[in-house]
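**User:**
Everyone, produce one record:

**Assistant:**
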Amino acid sequence: MIFYFSATGNSLQVAKAIARAQEEELISVTECFKKGTFEFTLRQDEKIGFVFPVYFYGLPTIITQFIGRLKLNNYYLQYIFAICTCGGSSGHALYRLRTEIARKHLWFNYGNTILLPDNYILLFNLLPPPEKREKMFVAAIPQIDQVNEDITNRRQGISPNNQGVLPGMMTSLFYPVYSRGRKTAPLFIPQRSVQDAGFAGGSALPRLFGWRKNDRFG
């Protein structure tokens, strides 16, 4: 089973691609909170995945809270992995996730990062130009293929790809801005904003992964 959180769709599409390749069930973390569902029973050969965006070089609060409430029945060292999406560098996000997993007495096996256009919705003026976004979507395809190959082969360890310079320092400096200052309210993303971010029309990733114009994210 693959648990995902996605605000605008990048991580959702990556999670879908991985779920299809690994033949695993896709489960929305947001829906788990809505339904109060945090307990799951594992198959012996189950793969447990987490897919989410990087927030301020760290974890979205909803991911931290979800793992804290998560209960996995029949766990016996099944393969656990995490894939995060980011527009630049991931800092120590995957190491933070490994720590949260360890607190649940679970063993974290593998982590990696997929580069996609930065789409922090409060900073749309920082989005790359359309041509660069298109190239990033195209470049994401082999990244996802490599991740799927790693998962199939049960690769171990956290990949150093896209962690950036001084990743631990960057997370320590910037993540508190998010974790201490965040204020969550109901979020509604206009369709035009989604299009501006590159998630509709002619961009490469939607075409290759079957995005539909009115897909719901989260």
Notes: The helical segments are 10-22, 29-35, 61-69, 93-103, 130-152, 167-181, 191-196, 204-209. Residues 164-168, 172-176, 186-218 have pLDDT under 50 and may be disordered. The first helix runs from residue 10 to 22.
